[in-house]
Structures
1.
Amino acid sequence: MNLTRRQQEVYSFLEEYFEEQGTAPSYEEIRQGLGLSSLSTVFKHLKQLERKGYLRSPWASQKRALALVGRGRPGVRLPLLGAVAAGEPIEAVEVPDQVEVPESLLRGGECFALKVKGDSMIEDGIHDGDLILVKKQESAENGQTVVALIEGEATVKKFFRQGKLVELRPANPAMEPITVAADQVKIQGVVIGLMRTYR
């Protein structure tokens, strides 16, 4: 279906935001970015884009996530491998499911998605219930946000190697870092983006 001029402006704004930020804008950011009069106007345009097949929620949930489709940019289906803790480590459980994400969020290589539990990474914009996109690799540079296994339990933290020790640092001043011997940590991948969700 063809888009009206205003719908095209909304879609172009979303597309540029995804490419620059690696995540979806908030409804208020859309309103401000396009100079719209109210949030209800934002909802109206988003619903029209969804009805015309340019925008959709890529997984079933009570939360809302914005994902762009169309214009020669098909979504990519990634395995959803359960949940990862942004807090205390939790048991890593693989769930046989998939999610569809915009191709523009991926950077090549093998990728997968995880649902975040906890709020230890909130200062990096990673919130409880978000889906993080992870590029699979077994090593990381200092300062990168990683998914790591510690004795079979998964956590998402910032990675810092200090000699024979590894510090997994939260992005929440109320929480303490996890420091363990380097040989006790298995890097599963580096976080390359997230799908921000809305209640």
2.
Amino acid sequence: MTNKNKLWCRTLGLTLSLLVLLLGGAAAVQAEVELPASTFLPFDGQHAMALSGASGERWIYPYDQNYLQVGYQQDSWSGERDLVVQKLDAEGKVQWKQVYERAGQDTLVILHTQKNGFVLGIHNQQENKKTARIMQCDGNGEVVWQRDLPMDKITAIASTNDKGIIVAGVSDGDIHLIKMDEQGIWKSSSRSTKQWERTYAASGSQYANEILQVLDEDEYNDGYVLTGATDGSTNGGQDVYMMRLDAYGEVKWSRNFGTEQDDEGITVVPMADQDDKVVGYVVAGNTENRRGDTDLYLIYVDKYGHLQSWPGYQYAPDGRKERTYGGAGDQRAMALVAVPDSFKDDRKLRGEDIEGRGGCVLVGVDVDDEEILIVRFDETGHVLWEKTLDIPGDILLVGTITEGDDETQYLAYSVTYPGNQGQNLKMYALKVYLEGVLEEDKTIPQDDQKETNHEAVTWEERTLKYEALRDIGKEIKDLLAQQPYRPLTAESGWGEIEWPDLSYYLGPITVGKADGEGTLLFKNGVWYKGQWKDNMFNGTGMLRFPSGEVYQGEFKDHMMHGQGTFTWPTGEKYSGEFRMNRRDGKGVFTWPGGVVYEGDFAEDQAHGQGVIRWPNGERYEGQMQDGQATGQGSYYFPSGEWYRGEVSNLTFDGVGVYHWPDGSYFVGQFQNDRLYGEGYYVWPNGVQQWGYWKEDHYVGIHEEAMETRNRW
């Protein structure tokens, strides 16, 4: 094969070191994402509820045997609102705090916790523009990556077994799904289960409240199932909506279910047989009754999406395929949670056999009476017991998967905040477990004796020290307002401003602030000339560093933000989009030798889809990850040879195909730019040779030859 041009020696991870020293910067560490995960919907969703007029501006969630406290930091002058997250230990002490500053008003719509990190689904409002954004954070709350999504709003998030996530949302009234890899990339040049995007157009409008990955009996990706609602081709005004997809997002089936009234699917759980094969799905939601109130609604469908009686019975125990639960007033479904494994085990009590039962627990809430409802049913649809409990706190949270183990499963959380900082915070965890002490009975073999036997549900109280989420900016402004002498109102016109760091501004001034076309000189030699607003770089301008770096382009709030060009004295140049002082968006990076990269950037590095061109005519087209050509891509040589397949750091590494100008080609495995592993070589006349290859040499049809023929 032709040797590739190795001018790609300087990665696109070049840091703007002087700019970081001037304006600040942070390093990000990639979070390891593992299942299981938990999803909480803290705003505008069915998984949270503020009771008795409690504040809806702060929440505490279980996380990694600790807690995450989430709230807002509001700027009373500018009106901007930022999301604040703190990690608390088991006693409530703050371990870290992160403020995610962005222009506009941020609203958290989904918190999705993972093993070593979490994902935030955010809606941002700036003037008349609303943006849906996903932010992946590591275990310290540092942002690993963040992406604006091409959808109107986010409705659900789920983790996948390839360390990625799938996001459900709505675009123009249709369900919109984006499958991201662990780097937050969803655009792919080839068909991939890790990266794809689809919009599902149908009559009427639809949305998804929950989406889950379905695994087969060998734990491989078998696609996805979602539930929500639709108002197209319905039995009533609105129906429960379900859709089953394959691993690539292709529709296997979609169905409507419901009554003549309004119905909605909230949550879905796959049902598996003893061999762990999925045989159907249980969907919980809400239905409107004849009184106009809302009841819990429960159905079972088979793996093909057909409404069925419960498995193992020709008819459901009550003769109906659909179940409803509720009384006077509004009751709403919030979650379906599988029971702990210990519930499935047969047990003994004084020689009496107690049959184990699997199945789920349906969690709902009585909105009017502020009570939580628990319905326990087994895998055949039998209702084993129902309980109604008061909600002990002021806020109710329910997640798709929360804490738990083989013995205990936690279903929901309730929190009571104290009136003053320093007092104790009360957190209540609703758990299902086995209780009951077995008295010593020598007639029962020791191996058959268990201390627990009866299924039970109760609130478990936890006490945490309360440290409030502080809004430092608001405290400073409130303190300023309390001072006996308010700042004087300065005049407007042409003038000078000398800052505490001895930097010096010359230009137009409006009410005492730099405003218009002006110049700023820093003591260290940094120089800015351009537009100002409210004492900050805002608009177009030029920023020059004493070491020779120059940025010319758009600024926002003292940061490079928008379209611009950054040049280095060594000859490198970047032209394209900037976000918060970093290359982020579409751009072109040029090296002095003539190598050019054009494509996506994220967090100051080439990331996404792009093209690299060399002066000798070689070209790479494909995925970029963290400044490196890694993923699926194509490489073209001036001689007419070309490669398409897996690439790692610009080397052919993985499965791919290599073509020669004479019409011959190789399909198989590559390593370090060489034919290495299993594959087919095809001659121009169509003759094929299958076997194993090592360092471009054919070693035969036996894999052992890869180890024994070291000198070939």
3.
Amino acid sequence: MAIENELRPLDLFNLVDKPLNIFYLIVFYSPLIISFVIFSSVFVYQNLKGVYYLFFLLVSITIRSFYLKNSTKSDEYKEWEQKLNPDCNMYGRFTNYGHSGFNLFVIAFSFMYVCLPMMINKDINYLVFGVFLLFIGGEIGVKYLRIKCIKDVKQILSNISTGALFGTLIVLIFYSLGLSDKLFFNELSSNNEICKAQTKQKFKCTVSNNGQVVGTVMK
């Protein structure tokens, strides 16, 4: 299978002559697709979980961009970066630094942010789980094997691991602050109600025998 020319634009929106571009568009715009779907839960479930997700995703992306901006690049990497296809950088200022692995970072972050609470709660939505894995597989297949937007396996692993680390840390912070109800759980499960006792409660129980009250018990 031939590799796409490094500097020739892919003409991604030409869906008539290149129907495979539909798949390419999904891969290239996967961060926008994933973040939009998760954020839309604000309207579907009438809560702010999607807002929290989007806020911490943007914070994580900003930290990543700041770190990569101030890190030293080797001459070999700079030379490789200059030969990248223009379509490899589609997100402007957030991806000017380390743009080649940006999608993997966002997918891995979103995967852990959404799926880790399900795993902790032992109630996994396997459809959501599988969709994230498909996004990762598509990203590697198109961006690394086909178009060469990603330099090597090290870059794949570093972006997946850092994205997953950010997502995991934020989930654990929510749990440590007692705010786990602000995270995502398996909304499609028949057992998806997450109960949380706010205060200690006592109940007064009446004990009866043959219709006659014989005592009360406090529980």
4.
Amino acid sequence: MPEPAPRLEYATRPDSSSYLAVIRVVGVGGAGLNAVNRMIDAGISQVEFVAVNTDMQQLQISDAPVKIHIGRELTQGLGSGAEPDVGRRAAEETYDQIKNALRGSDMVFVTAGEGGGTGTGAAPVVAKIARELGALTVGIVTTPFRFEGSRRKSSADTGVEQLRAACDTVIVIPNDRLLEVLDRSTSMLDAFKIADDVLRQGVQGICDLITMPGLINLDFADVRTIMSDAGSALMGIGYATGEDRAKQAAERALRSPLIDTEIVGARGILLSIAGGEDLTLLEVNDAAEAVRAAATDDTNIIFGATVDERLAGQVWVTVVATGLGGKGRRATPTYVGAAPSTRSDDPLEPPSFLRG
């Protein structure tokens, strides 16, 4: 039975004053698909989701409206067997279908878990196609927990380097550093869920700045300025309540265990500040000043602030530092957690390890 063509929505391009950037998020492999499902559940708006996998069974249960089964002949729909070369060949075999699905994109996020087969091998191929089409291409991936073994770590290291060569910017989320702040009673399943949700927050923190109205809005050109040809990037997330909450959230984001080095050497910083209707402009300034103090005078910092009525009393700060050469002092870790989703009408509660 022939494979159905992906469902596509091609954007028309009106005049620049009313044009909305076309943003697509591509989940590649099992972890990528899990992250996409979380993003869809979080209600991230004005973004099209694409699922790419060799495993037909996983693909069928994905919530993504556009699904691309890669390597039909190569894997017979059974996955890549944790072999990155199989993932790469599978994506190359489906090159035209992937290209058709991404055509017309202004920005493409490629999200995956490094260390397996499909995500590690196919993500660089997807990124290369997106960049060939002229899209700002951002990779956002996790690296394995230590307990997953040295073989997966070696595969992940190779995969990250290949992805860096194909993307404008790559944000690497080291799962192993999450262990520094997770409670010892956290189950393995919950640890993987938290890692998936941090992937979601990385994408949502950037997308919301572009697509959601807020106190301070950014447009796509601002984001492109920071992330185009920027190389390695790091992401930190901070949360706070009470007095000086905005400044504290920013400082916690800067000391996040997801950030391996201090951001002094960053060429650019993208700063996302989210709070409830009680968020003030002075608090936004406090957060921005805290980040500015941690950077150098010539670092290009752009920031935006969005409002969610369910975040009353809370401030969430996401910092993406780009253009890092991998040098610098190791940051002192503090708390980290996935930011709240935006679909439910219930009040938002931070994870337990953020409240400690």
